[in-house]
Structure formats: structure tokens, C-alpha cells
Amino acid sequence: MKSMIFSTALILGYLTSLSAQDIYLPVSSKSETARAEYYKALKAAENANIPAFFDGMKATVKMDPNFFMAYVNLAFAETAFGQYEKAAAYIKPALTIDPAGLNENEKIHRRALQAWDKDPKADPAKYMEALTAAYPNTPEAYDLAARSAKWLSKDPKASLKHLLRLLELRPDFGGGYNSLGYTYMELGEMGKAKAAFEKYIALAPKEPNAYDSMAEFYLNNKEYAKSVEYYDKAAAMGNGGSMVGAERARAVMKGNVAVVDGLYQAFAKGDVPAVLAVMDANIVWNEAENFPYADQNPYKGPEAVLNGVFGRIMAEWEYWNLTDIQLHDMSGNMVLATLRYKAKHKTTGKVIDSQTAHLWTLWDGKIVAFQQFTDTKQAAEAVK
Predict the structure, then answer these.
(1) pTM here?
(2) I need a surface site. Which of 138, 310, 350, 379 has the fewest CB within 10 A?
(3) 8-221, what's its fold?
(4) CB count in 10 Å sphere of residue 105
(5) Domain ranges of the chain
(6) What is the pLDDT of residues 69-102, one digit of tens each?
């Protein structure tokens, strides 16, 4: 997984139904057992069972050494993973197959393999455009073209174009919505990405990869608690890799708690610069309604918080201590702190001991919002 994290399901997102022959590109192999193994491998790849995909394709070429499209799939997959030497091991035997027996789909792919044989990093975009032109109503042509655009041509907009056409032809294809979600995520259209992953779950509710993909969405969107929820669901359904994602999301949540804990420690030491340093430049800070310092809500930016809240507290109170602090991970990048205020007012000499809660919202390790909840009556009476 990467910083903008994409699952291997996107690399190998094949079609769902294996019974409707018109959704697949034609293959020239006459071996029924090899064809059955080939389609089984495609089915495994649909929901990111990558080991089964490779095993199935390798078994296919053992059953029929002239199964051209099995070599193509193996070469494409290895190239997409950047494994050019492994890809060459499939390109070479594919090119020894007599082209006279190949159909138009295979001939187009043969030209792409010839280009890769000369340059492993050659852009196959023109061959994919030829493929969709030759098979304008065959969903698999757009599936291949979309994955090629994403992983080999590095053109997510072209990938999106092919995916949208794919789903026009196959609106019940869950794997297509999975690829669509990742493509929208790469393009920064997070609302559309979420909708695509939701559609994937609706179409494939028993597939753990559907929940793993949604977990990745939430991880990218920095909604760590939701990410953990979906990773845990995928793991419970048998996706072992999801456990790693869940631990990563949990680690980030612990990081948020650590940021807030550091802030309280700095406050206890009177280290105001350290407190301000963990605030985002555009922090929005709200004191509890009817609290003495709620009169300037919302405070925007660290300087406003310093002057409007901290400065006034230091000027008006003999001491202001935070005790019994407990921190709790919350959804939506939030950390809830439960604590007590213990303070003495300089002018009136009155003290407060009030039950309090702070809700902190974080983004990329910075605090972007704060909401105070406390016993405002005690504070109001203390300043009278």
C-alpha cells in the first residue's frame, strides 16, 4: 500500500459473470479445460485474490501452451507491478505462437507485447484505443483499457473514461465500481469515490475486498475510526491483509491521542508556545456557551486563541489547573478529553472544581477544531 493507497484489486479488476460470453473478449484456445481454468483465474482476480489469479493463469498455459491471452494477462500483471523481467518470461513464449491463428483481440495484444519486448515501459495506450474501437460493446475491452491507462499509461482521466463506459455496459459489475472508486480517489473526487465503493459493497456484500476497499477510502480520507471498522470487517471475512490496514489506522488514531496528550503536558508546564505549535493555522476554537470567554466565539487561528482565551485566563485567574484528564479515540479524527477544571479567581477569590470535556478535531497531526463543554454556572459565579 502507498501514500495514496491503491489495492491490487484495481490492477486485476475483471468482470463478474462468466456465463455471458458476449462480455468477454474472444480467445482462440480450443481447450475447454484450459478455457475453464482461464475464466476461473479471472474470477479470482476480480476480488483481489492475486495468488489464485497467477496460479490459474500458469495452470492455463500448462494445459494449453498456445493459450495466448493467458500469457497476455500474466505479462500485463507483472508489468503493472513493475516486474519487467518476469513479464518478459511470458512475452517471449506468447510471441512464438503462430499469429495466423489469432483473432483480432489477440492480434492487437500481440502488437502491444511486441512493443513491450522492445521497451518494457512502452505506453500501450494506442493499442487499448484500438481494442475498444474493435470491440465497442464488449465490457472486458474497457476493463483492460481502464487498467492499462491507470497502471501503465499513468492517465487516470483516460482510465475514468473507460470505466464509465464499462459500467454502462455492465452496471452489475462490482469490480468495476471498485476500480472506479480508486480512480475517483486518485483524482481527488472523494464523494464520488465513496459512492462507488458503496455500490461495490451493495453488489458484492459477501466479498471481503469490498470492505477492504472502503476501509482504504476512509484511511485516505483520514476517517481512521471508520477505516478500522471496515478493515476489521474484511479481516473477519477472511482477508488477512486487512489486519495490517487496521493496525495502521489504529496507529494513526493513537498518534492523534499523542498530539492531544502532548498539548496537555505542555499546558501543565506553562509552555504556551508548544501548545500553540500543534494548532493548525486555521484552527476554529469554541468555548462552551455562557462560559466567560465564549463572548468572542469562534476564535480563528492560534493568535486569537492566545489573546482571547489563554491571555485572559492568565490575567484573571490566580491558577487554572486541568486534572483527571482521560483521552478517548473518537470517529471523525476526533479525540475526546474528560477532565476537571480547578481554578481560583484573582479578584473574587472564588474557586471552581468543574466537570469538563474537550472535543479535539485533528488533521495531519494538527488540531483544526476545539469545542469546550463544562459547568458554566461555576465559572460565571466565580467571576461575579
Answers:
(1) 0.70
(2) 350
(3) 1.25.40
(4) 23
(5) 8-221, 255-382
(6) 999 999 999 998 889 999 999 999 999 999 999 9
